[in-house]
UniProtKB/TrEMBL annotation:
<feature type="transmembrane region" description="Helical">
    <location>
        <begin position="169"/>
        <end position="189"/>
    </location>
</feature>
<feature type="transmembrane region" description="Helical">
    <location>
        <begin position="274"/>
        <end position="294"/>
    </location>
</feature>
<feature type="transmembrane region" description="Helical">
    <location>
        <begin position="24"/>
        <end position="43"/>
    </location>
</feature>
<dbReference type="GO" id="GO:0005886">
    <property type="term" value="C:plasma membrane"/>
</dbReference>
<feature type="transmembrane region" description="Helical">
    <location>
        <begin position="220"/>
        <end position="237"/>
    </location>
</feature>
<dbReference type="GO" id="GO:0022857">
    <property type="term" value="F:transmembrane transporter activity"/>
</dbReference>
<keyword id="KW-1003">Cell membrane</keyword>
<feature type="transmembrane region" description="Helical">
    <location>
        <begin position="128"/>
        <end position="149"/>
    </location>
</feature>
<feature type="transmembrane region" description="Helical">
    <location>
        <begin position="55"/>
        <end position="77"/>
    </location>
</feature>
<dbReference type="InterPro" id="IPR001851">
    <property type="entry name" value="ABC_transp_permease"/>
</dbReference>
<feature type="transmembrane region" description="Helical">
    <location>
        <begin position="300"/>
        <end position="318"/>
    </location>
</feature>
<feature type="transmembrane region" description="Helical">
    <location>
        <begin position="83"/>
        <end position="116"/>
    </location>
</feature>
<feature type="transmembrane region" description="Helical">
    <location>
        <begin position="249"/>
        <end position="267"/>
    </location>
</feature>
<protein>
    <submittedName>
        <fullName>ABC transporter permease</fullName>
    </submittedName>
</protein>
<keyword id="KW-0812">Transmembrane</keyword>
<dbReference type="Pfam" id="PF02653">
    <property type="entry name" value="BPD_transp_2"/>
</dbReference>
<keyword id="KW-1133">Transmembrane helix</keyword>
Length: 329
């Protein structure tokens, strides 16, 4: 019989445990998304067609990118309460500034990403509560948006609308965008060395320092990525809306947090799943469509959506308890 050194066995056991934890993080939300989609198809078989898939999934793209933006913040152990106002400001830039002054509009977008990174640096250097800072900045983003566009209006450039609404005719573009984004971000955050550093900034900052990495730079990276994905969310939202509204994405604040948590993320920091976050966003978005198909009044949809999300979280907690019990045996 072949024997292995104790450290080899320990490494293999740890790798298996990590693989099981990663799989468990996204498995339940993925199954939940499939179940909700199956219910949609049962109620409206046309949903499974090319046109039906496009109509159901395309409006969810801005939410998916908003959830991914929130995921980067939560990976660093923080919470962002300003992502909705930020996406609203991006929408205003696309609808008002870009058509009037293309150069200024293009310049403003990376400036907003840098501003988001600077917010992360401020939180880290001054050791400020992220909830307080991001909440305060939400009023700044919203205020700038209202100054630029006091009432809903403006017009998003036609080339952006055409790009966002483009469909190749074989596979709905929404599926392609979600799949490519998920693969790229999952590889970067969960497989690359720098991705491990970014996650470590939230779960083990002292270990990151001892390894010679800068926690400040990691925080800058996480907030910059959140700002970038917020811009992408605003891009798709602008292309779909065709106009601007500073308040257009206010609901994304709580929905993005819910998407990350339902997708296996943890407020402890560093514990996030890209696949789970995308699946969580789909669960939340598809539940909204399901409730509409069932004819649930809009006044009750938020409550019904919340109950379903709580059920998913309870099931996730139960699966964690089962895994712990099995590990203790």
């Amino acid at each position: 019989m072949t024997s292995f050194p104790d450290d080899t066995v320990a490494r293999r056991s740890g790798g298996i445990a990590l693989l099981q934890q990663t799989r468990a993080a996204w498995f339940l939300p993925a199954v939940a998304a499939i179940i909700v989609f199956a219910l949609l198809v049962a109620l409206r078989p046309a949903v499974a067609s090319f046109t039906g898939l496009s109509l159901v999934l395309t409006p969810l793209l801005p939410l998916v990118f908003a959830v991914l933006a929130q995921m980067f913040i939560i990976a660093g152990g923080d919470i962002d309460l300003g992502i909705g106002s930020y996406i609203g400001l991006v929408n205003v830039v696309f609808a008002v500034v870009l058509p009037a002054n293309p150069v200024l509009g293009i310049v403003l977008l990376p400036v907003l990403v840098l501003a988001y990174a600077g917010m992360g640096a401020l939180i880290h250097l001054r050791r400020l509560p992220s909830i307080v800072v991001t909440l305060g900045m939400s009023f700044v983003w919203l205020g700038i948006g209202i100054v630029l566009l006091p009432t809903p209006g403006g017009q998003v450039p036609a080339w952006i609308v055409s790009m966002v609404r483009f469909n190749p005719g074989v596979i709905p573009m929404a599926i392609v965008v979600m799949a490519v984004t998920t693969v790229v971000v999952a590889w970067f955050l969960e497989r690359s060395k720098y991705g491990a550093v970014l996650r470590g900034a939230g779960s083990n900052p002292e270990g990151i320092r001892r390894a010679g990495w800068s926690v400040l730079r990691a925080k800058l990276g996480l907030y910059a990525l959140a700002g970038l994905f917020g811009v992408l969310s605003g891009l798709f939202l602008s292309g779909q809306a065709g106009g601007g509204d500073a308040n257009i994405a206010q609901s994304y604040v709580l929905l993005s947090i819910a998407g990350v948590i339902v997708g296996g993320g943890s407020f402890a920091g560093g514990k996030v799943s890209v696949v789970g976050a995308v699946a969580g966003a789909l669960v939340i978005g598809l539940i909204g469509s399901l409730l509409q198909f069932l004819g649930v009044p809009s006044s009750f949809q938020a409550a019904a959506q919340g109950l379903v999300l709580v059920l998913v979280l309870v099931l996730r907690a139960m699966s964690s308890w089962i895994r712990r019990d099995r590990g203790a045996l």
